[in-house]
């Protein structure tokens, strides 16, 4: 945060579709040091419009709103007005709303039972380039990131009449293994591997290994390498 930003109050817009809640948040923020409420919005569309008009430092953004929800409004604000940060302020501390909001560009996430000090910290944290996440949200985010990436589920029914063993061979082809390596992995002879590959090509109408790899990706049998 620049020296100028440190010496003036953070200019904030509040977006919440519930009038009583919105007015209560505005009243609370008016009592907090270092924060100036410059506008309030009843839905995401209005929030985006106010950001364009007022260029606030931060939007406190509810997620569940009509016309344009908080996730979409966050995405538009961050794309169109990158100088404005977004702190999500919501009743719903669940992964279904948390992670889409963070992916859309929100830098902070607080539940509506957050105290005034916590809100002030979150606002000034995002203005300083840090993440304004409550401790509970930080823990859940770390837990989510530490979860192993789910492997693609195998097709409910193998395509083109492929057998389970032929699917295994096709996966190993997609991983780049040659016939000898596939044989070692599956503990079968190279001749048996060749037979399986010939059966795969015949059933799926394939001409070569490159087509087999593309087929495996298209059918969800194997996942393309990242990057």
From TrEMBL:
Keywords from UniProt, A to Z, are: DNA-binding, Phosphoprotein, Transcription, Transcription regulation
Key word Transport present: no
Which CDD domains does this chain map to?
Answer: LuxR_C_like (cd06170), REC_NarL-like (cd17535)
Per the record's keyword annotation, is Transport included, yes or no? no
Top-rank lineage group of the source organism? Bacteria
Q: Name one Pfam family in it.
A: Response_reg
Q: Which residues carry this modification: 4-aspartylphosphate?
A: 62
Q: Which Gene3D superfamilies match?
A: 3.40.50.2300
Q: Where is the HTH luxR-type domain?
A: 155-220
User: Could you tell me which InterPro entries the record lists for this protein?
Assistant: CheY-like_superfamily (IPR011006), NreC/VraR/RcsB-like_REC (IPR058245), Sig_transdc_resp-reg_C-effctor (IPR016032), Sig_transdc_resp-reg_receiver (IPR001789), Tscrpt_reg_LuxR_C (IPR000792), WalR-like (IPR039420)
Response regulatory domain boundaries: 11-127
PANTHER family in UniProt = TRANSCRIPTIONAL REGULATORY PROTEIN NARL-RELATED, TWO-COMPONENT RESPONSE REGULATOR
Tell me the protein's name.
Answer: Response regulator transcription factor
Species the sequence originates in: Streptomyces gilvifuscus
Q: What is the lineage of its organism?
A: Bacteria, Bacillati, Actinomycetota, Actinomycetes, Kitasatosporales
């Amino acid at each position: 945060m620049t020296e100028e930003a440190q010496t003036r109050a953070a200019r904030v817009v509040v977006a919440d579709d519930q009038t009583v809640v919105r007015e209560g948040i505005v009243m609370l923020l008016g009592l907090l040091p270092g924060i100036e409420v410059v506008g309030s919005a009843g839905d995401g569309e209005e929030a985006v419009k106010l950001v364009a008009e007022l260029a606030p430092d931060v939007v406190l953004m509810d997620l569940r709103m009509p016309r344009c929800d908080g996730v979409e409004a966050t995405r538009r604000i961050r794309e169109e007005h990158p100088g404005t940060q977004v702190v999500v302020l919501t009743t719903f501390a669940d992964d279904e709303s948390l992670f889409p909001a963070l992916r859309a560009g929100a830098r902070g996430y607080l539940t509506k039972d957050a105290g005034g000090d916590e809100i002030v910290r979150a606002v000034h944290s995002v203005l300083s380039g840090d993440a304004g996440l409550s401790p509970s949200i930080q823990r859940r985010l770390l837990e989510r990131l530490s979860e192993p990436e789910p492997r693609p589920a195998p097709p409910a029914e193998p395509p083109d009449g492929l057998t389970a063993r032929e699917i295994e061979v096709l996966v190993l082809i997609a991983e780049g293994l040659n016939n000898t390596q596939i044989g070692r992995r599956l503990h079968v002879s190279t001749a048996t591997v060749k037979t399986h590959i010939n059966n795969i090509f015949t059933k799926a109408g394939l001409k070569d290994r490159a087509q087999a790899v593309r087929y495996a990706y298209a059918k969800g049998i194997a996942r393309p390498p990242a990057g």
